Amino acid sequence: MPRTTASKTKKLESMNLTELRARYREVVGEETRSPNKKYLIRRIEESLAAKKRRSPSRRATAAAPSAPPAPAAPAATPAAGTQPAPKRGRFAGMSLEELQAKYREVVGRPTGSSDISYLKWKIREAEAGRVPVGPRPERELKVREDGKRVIPLSFEAEALEGLDKTWRDAGIPSRTEFFRRAVHRELTAMGATEAAAHFATKAEG
């Protein structure tokens, strides 16, 4: 791994989850609630690498001649009835606001990104069918046979191990019961007595 890449990875790994989510939003241009630091770091690095590959300055540097260019000849006057050649690239004359509007039209959801290179890249990728488009679907809750719903909770392995050890040492019969008691106490502290009552049966047992 190049030294600069390793340095960037180390810096990302030193960030906490809130900082990583903010950096993800800045680089990728989308909000995320993922608690998986490894996933966030990988997506940030992939997005930065994609931008670097598509950077106009990088391509210009690679194609720059070793000798200074010859003086440019005077521009020829366009013949009567002809139009001047348009700027290359269909995004060349678009402002940031126009690009964001185009992103919303093609990708199917708004963006808060102000990274012009990223916006152009994402629009092209969406038009080519290489990235998902449309609003991000909400995760459906699983419903058990008894009518209870199962909600997804994600934790780092080390944090979950410490959590489980704590409630076992306290004599709580299960992880579910621990969460039930914790939710009851938190809702009660917030003054949400009506909501807390749904968790009161086993919370106080």
Count the DSSP helices. 10
Mean pLDDT: 78
Q: Label the overall shape.
A: elongated
One letter per element, helices H and strands E, the order comes to HHHHHHEEHHHH
Q: Quick one: biggest sheet? A: 2 strands, antiparallel
- Total number of beta strands: 2
Query: In angstroms, what separates the terminal alpha carbons?
Result: 55 Å
The side-by-side strand order for the widest beta sheet comes to: 1-2
Structural class: mainly alpha
- Runs in which pLDDT lies below 50 for 5 or more consecutive residues are none
CA-atom Rg in angstroms: 27 Å
Share in helix: 40-55%
Strand content: under 5%
**How many independent structural domains?**
3
Description:
The protein is mostly helical and 205 residues long. The chain has 3 domains: 1-57; 90-137, no CATH class; 155-203, no CATH class. 53% of the residues lie in helices and 2% in strands. The chain has helices at residues 3-13, 17-28, 37-53, 56-63, 96-107, 116-127, 157-169, 175-190, 193-196, 200-203, and strands spanning 142-143, 149-150. It is elongated. 7% of the residues are buried.
Summarize the structure.
The chain is mainly alpha-helical and 205 residues long.
Salient structural properties:
205 residues, mainly alpha, 3 domains, 10 helices, elongated
Secondary-structure map:
Elements: H1 3-13, H2 17-28, H3 37-53, H4 56-63, H5 96-107, H6 116-127, E1 142-143, E2 149-150, H7 157-169, H8 175-190, H9 193-196, H10 200-203
Antiparallel strand pairs: 1-2
Helix pairs in contact: 2-3, 5-6
